[in-house]
Design goal:
It contains five helices and twelve strands. The chain is α+β, with helices and mostly antiparallel strands. The strands form four sheets. A four-stranded antiparallel sheet has the order 1-4-12-7. A hairpin with a 4-residue loop joins β2 and β3. The protein is globular and about 45 Å long. The termini are far apart.
Length: 244
């Protein structure tokens, strides 16, 4: 599990799911449209807030599954195994390469240009291919028009330490938000495109959403976490986005 989150609280008893795991979802989940909007991001460490205006985009219904990752890359890196479990133990770089590979598979232009040395990447904003969401896109989609810490009762919408029995769960097993997005909170943390704070943390990238081993405090729409882009660990995955 990732180790640098701010977590508080007491482990709760397991509670029943609001939905059957994977109920009503297709093999890969696809993407859904997310409307334009404005979101105000905040950083608890520095006390800073900043508004971001967003144009419409599309976002994965749920995190990329192990089956989809294997179909595109031929690899199964996850520590827990199951086709409908989120792929985890994938680095930010793995996620970037997956996005380009999926774009190629579907005849779309790749969103990322990776330098020959494999250490630098540029985002082609004109691309129609798959990419990671920005941090602002992630939070806007997570909130789905709500303004509170979460888009619903946590036990109904997320797998977290209090109800997961301390193991990952299949995607889609909790109630989605009003825009049809599952697992925006809980199950696995999700890589975003953005650098966390380059002046202080260099190349560290943003993680959002909370995971299956996290206390309730970490599973909130505004919580930010950071990690090195080469990190691979068992509660970090990702979902894809596309520009429109």
């Amino acid at each position: 599990m990732t180790g640098d989150a701010d977590v508080t609280g007491v482990v709760g008893a397991a509670k029943g799911a609001g939905l059957t795991e994977g109920a009503g979802l297709t093999e890969d989940g696809g993407t859904v449209p997310v409307p334009a909007g404005r979101v105000t991001l905040s950083d608890r460490r520095t006390g800073r807030t900043w508004p971001v205006e967003l144009t419409p985009y599309r976002l994965g219904v749920h995190p990329v599954t192990q089956a989809r990752y294997a179909a595109v890359t031929g690899q199964r890196p996850s520590s827990a195994r199951g086709d409908r479990l989120p792929v985890e133990s994938v680095s930010w770089w793995d996620a970037v390469r997956f996005c380009n590979a999926l774009s190629g598979r579907e005849g779309l232009s790749p969103a990322y240009r990776v330098r020959g040395d494999g250490e630098g990447v540029e985002w082609d904003a004109s691309s129609d291919g798959y990419r990671l969401p920005t941090e602002a896109e992630w939070e806007h989609a997570c909130r789905a028009g709500t303004t509170g810490a979460r888009y619903g009762d946590l036990d109904e919408i997320a797998w977290h330490r209090g109800n997961s029995l301390e193991r990952m769960r299949e995607v889609g097993g909790r109630r989605p938000n009003s825009w049809g997005l599952h697992d925006m909170l809980g199950n696995v943390w999700e890589w975003c495109w953005d650098l966390y704070d380059p002046e202080v943390y260099g190349t560290y990238r943003v993680l959002r959403g909370g995971g299956w081993f996290d206390e309730r405090w970490s599973c909130r729409a505004s919580v930010r976490r950071r990690s090195h882009p080469t990190l691979r660990i068992d509660d970090v995955g990702f979902r894809v986005a596309r520009s429109v």
